[in-house]
Amino acid sequence: MSDYTFISGATGGIGRAFSISSAKRGYNLFITGRSEDRLKSLKEELIRSYPDIIIQYFASDLTDEKSRADMLDYIDKNGIKFERIINVAGVDIQKAFMEYTPEKVLFQIRVNAEATVTLTHALLKRRSEQTEVITISSMSGATPMPYFALYSATKAMLINFFTSLHYELKKEKVKVTVVMPGGVFTRPDIIKEIKDQKLWGRLSAKTPEFVAEKSLKAVKKNKIKYIPGFFNKFLYFVMKLAPERIVLRFIAKRWKKISKDAF
Ligand SMILES: NC(=O)c1ccc[n+]([C@@H]2O[C@H](COP(=O)([O-])OP(=O)(O)OC[C@H]3O[C@@H](n4cnc5c(N)ncnc54)[C@H](OP(=O)(O)O)[C@@H]3O)[C@@H](O)[C@H]2O)c1
C-alpha cells in the first residue's frame, strides 16, 4: 500500500503550488477542497505531467464535522496512510470585528483553526512510520492585528499549536514546521492588495511556488518555523522588539482601509 501526502486547500493558489511541487518529487497525493470539479481537473492536469504518481481526491467542506468524518471514512476504507500532512486551507476575512455576522465569526474559526487542528489529529493517527507536517499560518499571526483581528488570532493559534506539537512529536519521527508567509500572489484581490502596498508589498510578497518549494525543504530540516523571504524575517524580529502600542497603531492605520469577506 502506498503512502500519501495530504493537501488541504489544494484548489487554491498555495495549495495548488504544493500539489505541483509534491507531484514533481514523486509523492502520491490526497488532495481536498470543497469543489469536486476543481479537484478532478487538478488531478487530471497533474496526472498528465506526472503519470507515475497516484492521486486521490475527496471534496469536503472543512467547516462541517460530518463532511470531515466522511473524508476520514473514505481514507480508512481505502487503507490510506500519510507520510506528509500539508494544511493549507484557510479563509481571510478582513474587516472590523463588529462588522462580522455571527456566522462569519464561526466560519473563519472553523476553517482556519478547528478543521486544521482536528484533521491534523485524525491524520496523525493514520500516519506512516516517518511523517512530515507543514501548516500554512501567516505573518499575520506574529502579532495582534486590529481590523484583521480574528484572522490574525486564528493564525497565531496555529503558530503556537504547531510549535508545541513540533516539540511533543520530535522523538516520534514526526517533523513539524509552521510556515508564516507575508503576501503571496494567489487570488486577484490578494494580488491587488500586494500591489497597493507598493514597496512594502514588493519586498514582502512571494510566489506560491516559492512558498511551496521552500516549505517542503524546511520541513525536511525539521525547522520549527519557516518565514519565507528575508524582509519578512526582518519584520518578524522588528515586531517582536518594538513597543506593542506602536505596532498596533501602525497596523490599524494600514488595515482599517481594507474590508473584505470570504465565502
Ligand atoms: N495569499 C496570501 O497572501 C497568504 C499569505 C499568508 C497566508 N496565507 C494562507 O495560505 C492559505 C492559502 O491561501 P491562498 O492565498 O492560496 O487562498 P485561496 O486561493 O483562497 O485558497 C484557499 C483554499 O482553502 C480552501 N477552503 C476554503 N474554505 C474551505 C472550506 N470551508 N472547506 C474546505 N476547503 C476550504 C479553498 O478550497 P475551495 O474554495 O475550492 O473549497 C482553497 O483551496 C490560507 O490558509 C491563507 O490564510 C495566504
Description:
This protein is of the alpha/beta class and 263 residues long. 52% of the residues lie in helices and 15% in strands. The chain contains 10 helices and 7 strands. The protein has a 7-stranded parallel β-sheet, with helices on both faces. The termini are far apart. Residues 9-15, 33-35, 38, 61-63, 88-92, 111, 136, 138, 181, 183-184, 186-187, 190 line the site of NADP nicotinamide-adenine-dinucleotide phosphate.
- How many beta strands in the DSSP annotation? 7
Question: What is the H/E string?
Answer: EHEHEHEHEHEHHHEHH
**Based on CA inertia axes, which overall geometry fits?**
globular
Q: Helix count, per DSSP? A: 10
Q: How many structural domains does the protein architecture include?
A: 1
Instruction: Using the coordinates above, name the CATH class.
Output: Alpha Beta
Major sheet strand order: 3-2-1-4-5-6-7
Q: Hetero groups bound?
A: NADP nicotinamide-adenine-dinucleotide phosphate
Q: Give the biggest beta sheet.
A: 7 strands, parallel
Please identify which CATH superfamily we are dealing with: NAD(P)-binding Rossmann-like Domain
CATH architecture grouping = 3-Layer(aba) Sandwich
Given as residue ranges, the uncertain stretches (5+ residues, pLDDT < 50) are none
Per DSSP, what share of the residues sits in E-state strands of 2 or more residues? 15-25%
Radius of gyration: 18 Å
